[in-house]
Amino acid sequence: MADIISLKNRVQETREKKMAADRLRKLQAVRSVLQEAKGILTCEKCHHELDEASLHRERDPRVPYLFCESCAEEYVDYIERLQGRGDKMCYWRNRQWFDIWKRWIEYRGTIDTFLRSKEFRRLLEELKQVGPFE
Ligand SMILES: [Zn+2]
Asked: 23 alpha carbon to ligand 1 midpoint, in Å?
């Protein structure tokens, strides 16, 4: 009898461990894509922490991302260069620099598409039902 109870406990324990590992994997999947840090807002491009001043600074309406001052300036220059203008003083903003921005914007768009996918939304729903993120 004791053996059966012990076996049941072990099965239960294994199941709970598997569920905990499964939940952790799901949480990590969400964190890796949302890049959330507790209560800290960071620049979407370079991930530097944004201070109060940069959060309250008036934003250029051409910048649809949460950027630090430096990345916002680069992004605006990128857009200007797309239209054949741009800051000529910044000679290092060459074709490769241009490609970095182009690809980053594509990458960011892909993340947005992933976040809107039904599979990702299902993942968020599942995690919501189990309990709050810690
Ligand atoms: Zn930045």
From this structure: 32
